[in-house]
Specification:
- By secondary structure, the chain is mostly beta strands.
- It has a single domain (about 30-170), classed as Electron Transport, Fmn-binding Protein, Chain A (Pnp Oxidase, Chain A), CATH 2.30.110.10.
- About 10% of the residues lie in helices and about 35% in strands.
- The protein is built from three helices and twelve strands.
- The longest helix is centred in the N-terminal third of the chain and has 8 residues, at about 20-25.
- One of its GO terms (molecular function) is FMN binding.
- Keywords: Oxidoreductase.
- InterPro entries: Flavin_Rdtase-like_dom (IPR002563), NADH-dep_flavin_reductase (IPR050268), Split_barrel_FMN-bd (IPR012349).
- It comes from Frankia nepalensis.
Amino acid sequence: MVERTLLTHGAEADDVDPATFRHVLGHFCTGVTIVTGLDDSGSPSGLACQSFTSLSLDPPLVLICPGRSSTSWPRIESTGRFTVNVLAEDQQDVSMAFGSRTAAKFDAVPWHVTDRGAVVLDNVLAWVHCDIEATYDGGDHQIIVGAVRRMRILRDHGPLLFFRGGYGLPTQKSASTISTVGDR
């Protein structure tokens, strides 16, 4: 039996502990992206980011939510632009590398810089290059609105999905074999 608890009108947010919050929202499937950019010295920087969505068609805007504990995001943010790389289902190793806190993230995949400064990981499904339009407080994350400047589809393939703390869906793999993502 699955237990379901709902907050009633007037209930305090304090009634929701972080573990329950993470568990419940883990039931929403997301795609996996890698946010990249060049830092002020011209070195690449990147992080795994599941919080990505389209925001507006006119003007074209997207939204990402990097964690405040990220050591990579401040280096990207300082330049005023970023690139979102949408991962394919065969790029779990790329997600794992960029979800770690190692300096060797860019050793996991070939990459290049476009003529407009977008840091694109090779063989991703698509990429979206943005200027930072606005930044908002989001608790332990930041809410970043990106004004889309360039975008491309690189290949036709299934997406890398994240569900219930692991890659893929239980219908594709048994729940016991779904691997988990490390701390970003």
